[in-house]
Amino acid sequence: MGFLKRLFGGDSKPVSRDESDANALILYVKGKKCGAIARVRVDLRNDLSLDDDGENYVVRKQVVDNVCYGMAELELHFDVNHKEVSRAVTNGEIVARADWEQQESLRIAPRSRNQ
Question: Which of 66, 67, 76 is nearest to 26 (CA)?
Answer without folding.
Answer: 76
